[in-house]
UniProtKB/TrEMBL annotation:
Species for this entry: Kaistia dalseonensis
Protein's name in the database: Imidazolonepropionase-like amidohydrolase
Taxonomic placement: Bacteria, Pseudomonadati, Pseudomonadota, Alphaproteobacteria, Hyphomicrobiales
SUPFAM superfamilies: Composite domain of metallo-dependent hydrolases, Metallo-dependent hydrolases
Pfam families to which the protein is assigned, alphabetical: Amidohydro_1
UniProt cross-references to InterPro entries, sorted A to Z: Amidohydro-rel, Metal-dep_hydrolase_composite, Metal_Hydrolase, Metallo-dep_Hydrolase, OTAase-like
Amino acid sequence: MSATLFTGGRFLDPAQDELLDGMDVLVEGGRIVEVSDTPISSSSATRIDLKGRTLMPGLIDCHLHVVSTTVDGWANTMAPSSLIALRARRILETILQRGFTTVRDCCGADLGLVMAIEEGLVDGPRLIISGKGLTTTGGHCDQRARTDDRDSIMEERLGTLGRIVDGVDNVRKAAREELRKGAKFIKIMANGGVASPTDPIHSLQYSRDEIKAIVEEAENAGTYVSAHVYTDKAIRRVVECGVLSLEHCNLIEPETARLAAEAGAIAVPTLVAYEGLALEGERFGLSKEAAAKIETVRTAGLRSLQIMRAAGLPMAFGSDLLGELQKYHTMEFEILARVLPNAEIIRSATLVGARLCRMEGEIGVIAPGAAADLLVIDGDPYKDITRLAGDGAHMAAIMRGGRFFKNTLH
């Protein structure tokens, strides 16, 4: 792999609150090998003059479902796995063109998609998977209607996001199976959801014993559990059981936010998901029952950001858009900016995301030894966060692992 030397630009270090001038960055063999405030000399490297543009780490989305190819969850499940894989390829390639060089798939994707990216069959972001999400009978990932008497939700299909598992012994086995099949963390449904047909938002899912058993299995494997949670009661419950990744958290209260922060948890707000569902969910197949639940969590979203920030609870960037609604992906930046400073949003999509992916120092930074995941931005994201929005329109170049997937720097 050829070497590349970036020079003449402005350097965005997510740990800082402003751009730095006069930095050179040398990339070789898919990694950053040198970062210097004095000129780097390399006879073998292709020299790229950034001409004042911003060089920053690739973005990280910590809550996506890349096999969710349509809002209608049951239709997604029933589609042939081969069709879902081809649709997922298009989704992954689009995500990378938005500047997201790493994605944490929060249930659904399998090892085959990870391997396809690693082998270069799909020009997508680095993919970190949880395998199928674990759900109770009638839980958030149970897509069966009340009149459906099937025994399962066909978890063998790629388009199915979860698997139904009840009982302590069974959840232990399921967690072990997902880890064996390549999961890097375990995802559970611990609260009611919007897109599921039979569970109200307030419903608590999984017993404490079941959650603790799953947490123990994850810890035994050197990893952690992520939980779908909205209500304050559900959030407190999973934190007390040892869950470290808290997805959504729209209805969190200050005391629970402080408890989560003290426990070392990380929250992943996904506010754009509810904006997308409110705008076009029913048009693309969201049931009327599910649509009626949207406002409960949507209206509380911005308040949750304020509460978590005040409590010192770290937040990673997430989107969680389903199927056709993934076109609203980068709107999340603009929603977050209604409450959070731009520097904190950038850290959520770089440093905090890397921590949640267990890849600190590897992604989300521009430092010697890190993966060469780099973006060249027209403008200053610290001053204008929409430089990261617009589906990559303000990105002159996108590099993952030392390879350009977009390059207009001529």
